[in-house]
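Lecture 7 notes: from sequence to structure.
We start with the chain below.
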Amino acid sequence: MKNTIALVTGGFTGESAISFKSAEVIERNIDREKFEVYTIIITRERWYYVDENALLHNVDKNDFSLTIQDKVIRFDAVFIGLHGSPGEDGKLQGYFDMLGIPYNTCDAATSAITMNKGYTKAVVDGVKDLYAARSVQLFSHTPVSPEDLLKQLNLPLFIKPNSGGSSIGMSKVKLASELPEALERAFKEDSQVLVEEFIAGREFTVGVYKGKEGIQVLPCTEIISSKEFFDFEAKYTKGMTEEITPGRMSEEEVKRVGVVAAETYSKLNCNGIVRIDYILEEGTDKFFFIEVNTVPGQTETSLIPQQVIASGRTIQDFYTELIEMSLESVKKLVV
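Predicted structure tokens for the same chain:
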């Protein structure tokens, strides 16, 4: 008998466009011999499913069910493919926890923490062989002048919305005169902003997930952007970025990053697939932590699908394992 899966997409932020693209790839690659899939679109106005006749069916939020032609459809598990809020910040996870419906991502607490770049850096502090750039976390209710920032940090700087994703609202600042505009851009996206010192080096990202054989680290990807940094346009426009999978690292570096990535995953109490971004510092070979993404993109240009294929697996088998792991978590609770 097939399990019934809700593939959740949409969202409340500018990342919803990426969520829809991810959902298209996920939907195409879920094994229909094992799972019956319903794509649920979540917006601020309504939660709904569109059937093959283009008819909209509202989700009953009391129990996250659908009623189609007098048939009530309940879900065995949820595949969250929704980037940003409410799919990546713990809101949906908390909702599904209350309903007792398993899902494929980190839990509510970890999702909320990792959505906040500053808090995440505080949690991973102490992971052996993992370093972090000096930074200052800013809040809209307690503004700090550019002059005060430059007393604490050295140029160049990265200005990032603290809870944003897909590099929306992010800037690289080389001159003090550029700071006010960069801060304003970031604060338009979030009430908290992270200001970090620039670390010179090569950028990598690595997928880590919890599978049937425990924590698994995928082959990393080296990011070579044609732009100043790996921003929204570079991430989602074909040809803007060279992505090398597996990335060009020595055997020792590959082994070391595998250990660091697995320990970071464990310390954050992650679940499902996450993507950890880092810089291999020029001249030192130190791994500098950038951020962790708990609902990484699954679009045609996204990095996790590339890494899965490089590991020798099919995307379909990978998604099957993620879903089966979430279903298995329910069995363990029942036992």
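Points to note: The chain is about 30% helix and 30% strand. The two ends are 21 Å apart (CA to CA).
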